[in-house]
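I am still getting used to backbone structure tokens and would like to learn alongside you. To get us started, please write out a protein record for me. Once you have written the record down, we can walk along the chain together.
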Amino acid sequence: MKKIAIALLLIMFQFQCFSQELEHISLKYQGFDREYWLYVPENVSEERPLVVLLHGYGGSAEGYRPEMVKCAAENGFVLCIPQGYKDKTGEAGWNVGYPDQEGMKTDDVAFVEYLVRRVCGKYDLNRSNVFLTGMSNGGEMCYLMAVRKPELFRAIASVSGLTMGWIVKNLPLPCRPVAFMEIHGTADKVSLWEGDPHNNEGWGEYTSVDMAMSRITAMNRCTYSTVEEMPRKSESSRRILLHRYLGGEKETLLYEVEDGPHSWFLDDIDTVSEIWHFFERQMKCN
């Protein structure tokens, strides 16, 4: 018990150190009070990439994913963590067309684009090295941004995200490809692996993971795929199959976590490192 207590204290201390380094910014955008948290490394320059991190539905940007803040500090990238806006139920999130978000006036696609321009402009960052990641509702924004604004990001990484049915029905695939990866559990009870085409779960219609990735592979003009089992992180880690979609214009990956729940899968895979290395590989293509 003593060892556990010491470990928890160390984690809390690390989190407090990193959280103190983040700047909290409030602003007015399209008539709404919006806010975000920003980590800026020392000696920031145009070579530094920008990563935008989106929390899940009902989440908060404050204190979100200290592992990503730690990664930003170790690798020297700028990290922007915006706060979602509250819907009629009082839950904060990204406006992707959930039934409870009906009537929301916030344009989060435009808001994310505005933040990218604002942060890149303030710190004179290279606009060609901007990346997006998010989990759950933030992952749905990843799919929406891939269709609406693929030119804005060098690469996009979704965790436990999905593609809403209205996106498939109403938004054509763009001509511009974008590097994309998804990490998803086959036993996810929130963002179902098999999709929910009839809105039985109340989140709105959405596609299966396979169909979501089929749209991305079509957008990226991939022609074939391979599957390999990843090394286990530990003996208790879940089995992960890595699907690589090849022959296209951009790197496209799917991490299939067998019996994985709705999560970041930190016990099964070094999720943050996988995302960062994926982004880093795209930068080397300059």
The CA atoms of residues 130 and 153 lie 5 Å apart. Residues 1-20 have pLDDT under 50 and may be disordered.
